[in-house]
Amino acid sequence: MKELVEVIAKALVKNPEQVNVSETNDNAGTVYELHVAPEDMGKIIGKQGRIAKAIRTVVKAAATRENKRVMVEIL
Predict the structure, then answer these.
(1) pLDDT for 27 beyond 90
(2) Is residue 28 classed as helix, strand or coil in its secondary structure?
(3) What is the pLDDT of residue 26?
(4) Which has the closest alpha carbon to 36: 15, 16, 19?
(5) Are 45 and 51 in contact (CB under 8 A)?
(6) 18 pLDDT more than 90
(7) What is its main location (predicted)?
(8) CA angle (18, 22, 26) in 5-degree steps
(9) Is the dihedral of CA 53, 56, 62, 64 positive or negative?
(10) Which end of the chain is more exposed for a tag (fewer CB within 10 A), N or C?
(11) Is the separation of the CB atoms in 73 and 34 below 8 Å?
């Protein structure tokens, strides 16, 4: 899952070398924190959050296939 988030984010941003994904586990499942350069934040979030929602949807769909619970946070 971590690689999936990373590949999607790197394809969208202008500075792919500054994309960083960290993984933490809590009671609700696995949380992936996506860090990008400040100037790329708008590209990751998209208009009215559409791209961020799409990223979360794709990752949740992939996690469902593996019977896992995941969340993606964009920081």
Answers:
(1) no
(2) coil
(3) 84
(4) 19
(5) yes
(6) yes
(7) cytoplasm
(8) 160
(9) negative
(10) C
(11) yes
Q: Which own/partner contact pairs does 41-44 have at CB distance under 8 Å and 24+ positions apart?
A: 41/74, 43/12, 43/13, 43/14, 44/9, 44/12, 44/13, 44/74
Q: Which helix (H) or strand (E) holds 31?
A: strand 29-35
Instruction: Tell me which residue of 10, 65, 49 sits closest to 21, measured CA to CA.
Output: 10
Tokens (6 digits) for 58:
């794709």
| The two three-digit tokens of residue 48, written as one number | 């009215």
Residue 24 bridge partners (DSSP): 31
Q: Do 75 and 35 touch, CB atoms closer than 8 A?
A: yes
Distances (CA, A) of 39 to 16, 18, 32, 48: 12, 11, 20, 17
- CA–CA dist 61, 2 (Å, integer): 14
Tell me if 35 sits within 8 A of 22, measured CB to CB. yes
